[in-house]
Design brief:
Layout: E1 6-11, H1 15-25, E2 31-37, H2 40-47, E3 61-65, H3 73-81, E4 91-95, H4 100-108, E5 113-116
Parallel strand pairs: 1-2, 1-3, 3-4, 4-5
Helix pairs in contact: 2-3
Length: 124
């Protein structure tokens, strides 16, 4: 990178989860949540630069919630990895689930990481 913060696309429909993620990234100078989408269809439109996202900048990283409306995170991940223009984008799956089959499916579908988010935010 050239000294600019890493641009992150956050795909998550949970407002509380967004607050937690933004808090976690607020002090990181190397990463910046550039844009947020609320469902799987909107995530793909953003990444494919369709509709209102025609001039959207390609993110450096995607944080993708598994449980979203319209398309699940798994469906979005599979569409991304099947698209020659988008398959190289790194994707981190986000969920509150600790189910082993979700972890296996995430990695098997091409995610580079899987993060289980806490149910509540605690600070010291």
């Amino acid at each position: 990178m050239n000294g600019e913060p890493m641009q992150i696309l956050l795909a998550d429909d949970n407002d509380d989860g967004i607050i937690i993620i933004q808090e976690a990234f607020s002090e990181a100078k190397l990463m910046k949540i550039k844009h947020r989408v609320r469902d799987g269809e909107e995530a793909l439109a953003y990444l494919r630069q369709e509709g209102q996202y025609q001039i959207a900048r390609r993110p450096d990283l995607i944080l993708l919630d598994i449980n979203m409306p319209k398309m699940t995170g798994f469906e979005v991940l599979e569409a991304l990895k099947g698209d020659a223009n988008l398959c190289s984008l790194p994707v981190i799956m986000l969920t509150m689930s600790g189910r082993e089959e979700d972890i296996i499916r995430s990695y098997g579908s091409g995610a580079c990481s899987y993060i289980r988010s806490p149910l509540t935010w605690t600070s010291s």
